[in-house]
Amino acid sequence: MIGFGLKGFLRRLVPREKGWDDPKIAGRDERIFVENKKSCPACHKGLDEGELERTLYVCPNCNHHFRITPWERIRFTVDGGVFQEIATKLESVNPLNFPDYDNKLAEVREKTGMSEAVITGRCKIENREVIMAVMAYNFMGGSMGSVVGEKITRAILEGARQELPVIIFTASGGARMQEGIFSLMQMAKTSNAIALLEEKGVPLFTVLTDPTSGGVTASFAMLGDVILAEPEAFIGFAGPRVIEGTIRQKLPEGFQRSEFLLQKGFVDLVVERKDIRRMLTFLIDTHRPSSRGF
Ligand SMILES: [Zn+2]
After folding, report:
1. Would you say residue 43 lies in a domain?
2. CA of 134 to the centre of ligand 1 (A)
3. CATH of the domain at 266
4. In this structure, which residues have their CB less than 5 angstroms from ion ligand 1?
5. pTM (2 d.p.)
6. pLDDT by residue (tens digit) across 260-288?
């Protein structure tokens, strides 16, 4: 702590909600780009929104995977898009009286139609029952406050109780800085719940989507029994500029992308969006809770 004090330390530890140092990621709204320019923001080839709907929001030319909302994710992944939400009544408060946090929450709720940055519930994939949590990057950068942590924890515990596989789609800029230490505590809480899941022999599958970072990477995202990632998703803890500034070295090409993490063993498989449903089905079948002990 010497040198920059506790405040400075916390600032370093808690990535800002829009904590993307990478200008290519910061504030990019790809859908608006397609709408305005009628082209793909990655390869700049002609593209219209209708076409994207049909390809699950993947560019047919360069395979760029667009960020999607949790409800789109659910529609693309679960049987009939049928999703029975749990813990819907939980809403964030402002435990530290952080200036303007209440207003910001109200505004984002209004804009997204969601109460928090994660949707959790029960659903079926190819007729196999699962508990699923889907994070929303469009809700305050998918930042993990106490409610996000609690909802994820409850989803995991529900999986443990009912012996149903748990699937978590991550998308997060990290901790919710407006909740300070309460936000950081969620890392320990979710990890603890996963330990219980493990004790019960119930599998957890995580699917890391663009972007997954900060406290989410440092906890449940990396604790899946099998960790999948979408192609070229940004996955890391701190942003690349912070790292470069700290170690004073140039980072290698493709650093903090799915494929790089696969190569280094942090990710088990990079799976295209169109194949995720099939892959999850395979994983559920090969990791049944009853197969414990084999
Ligand atoms: Zn493209």
Report:
1. no
2. 25
3. 3.90.226.10
4. 40, 42-43, 59, 61-62, 64
5. 0.88
6. 999 999 999 999 999 999 999 999 999 98
